[in-house]
Design a protein that fits this description.
This protein is of the alpha+beta class. The protein contains 8 helices and 4 strands. It has helices at about 10-25, 40-45, 65-75, 85-115, 125-145, 155-170, 180-190, 190-200; strands at about 1-5, 25-30, 50-55, 60. The two termini are about 20 Å apart.
Length: about 200
C-alpha cells in the first residue's frame, strides 16, 4: 500500500489523496508538523510534503510528480488520457502549470503573508506575484470556458491539480477566485472522492 506523508492542512497532499480516491487505490496517510522531525528529514532529505512511499523502495516528493507516477504505475486511468489522445498534452501542460506557474507563486505569497514582518507584507515582489497568479487564473478560466472540466467532459489530473491550487489561493490567502472558476471549484468540491480525501486529511 502506498503511504503519503502530509501536513495536517496541506492541500498539495490532498491532491494525491483525491487522485487515489478517484482511482480506488488504497493508501495510508501519515501526518507531520513543522519543523520536520529528524526522522522525516532522514526519510526525505529534500524536505517538503507530500511525500510518497511505494513498494520497491520508491520514495518521491513534489505533488505533480507523485500524481503522474501514480497514474502511470496504477493506470490506465481516465485521469490521464492515453499518449495517442490529443487531450494528453493539454492534461500534462495544465497539471504542471498548477505548480510551475501558480503554485510556485503561491509559495512566495504564503511565505510573505504568514512569515514576513508587517512592513514587508505589501512589498513590490508580493504585488507582482499576486498579479502573476491573477493572470494565470484568467488563463485557466479561458481554458475552462463553458466546459464542465478543463480538458473535455471528464475529470483529469489537471482538474485535481488546478482545483487544489484554487483552494490555496482562496483558503490560505483569502483571495477572490474569478466567478467561472469559483463555480467550477464548487463542482469539484462536491465530488465524493474529494470529500473522502478531505476527510482523510482530518
Amino acid at each position: 500500500m502506498v503511504r503519503i506523508t502530509n501536513f495536517a492542512r496541506g492541500l498539495r497532499g490532498v491532491r494525491v489523496f483525491w487522485q487515489c480516491e478517484e482511482i480506488g487505490l488504497p493508501y495510508e496517510v501519515a501526518t507531520i508538523g513543522f519543523p520536520y522531525p529528524d526522522s522525516y528529514k532522514a526519510l526525505n532529505p529534500a524536505g517538503g510534503v507530500p511525500f510518497l512511499e511505494d513498494e520497491g523502495g520508491v520514495g518521491i516528493n513534489e505533488s505533480v510528480a507523485i500524481m503522474l507516477y501514480l497514474a502511470e504505475r496504477y493506470g490506465p486511468t481516465p485521469l490521464l488520457p492515453a499518449k495517442d489522445d490529443p487531450a494528453f498534452a493539454q492534461v500534462l501542460q495544465l497539471t504542471v502549470y498548477s505548480e510551475a506557474t501558480i503554485g510556485g507563486a503561491l509559495n512566495t505569497l504564503m511565505a510573505t503573508h504568514f512569515m514576513a514582518p508587517d512592513a514587508d507584507k505589501k512589498n513590490w515582489t508580493a504585488g507582482m506575484t499576486e498579479g502573476r497568479v491573477a493572470h494565470a487564473l484568467g488563463y485557466v478560466a479561458g481554458v475552462l470556458g463553458d466546459k464542465p472540466f478543463l480538458v473535455g467532459d471528464e475529470l483529469t489530473l489537471a482538474d485535481i491539480a488546478i482545483g487544489t491550487a484554487l483552494g490555496m489561493w482562496q483558503g490560505a490567502l483569502g483571495k477572490v477566485i474569478p466567478a467561472p472558476l469559483d463555480a467550477y471549484r464548487e463542482r469539484l468540491r462536491a465530488r465524493p472522492a474529494y470529500q473522502r480525501a478531505m476527510a482523510k486529511q482530518g
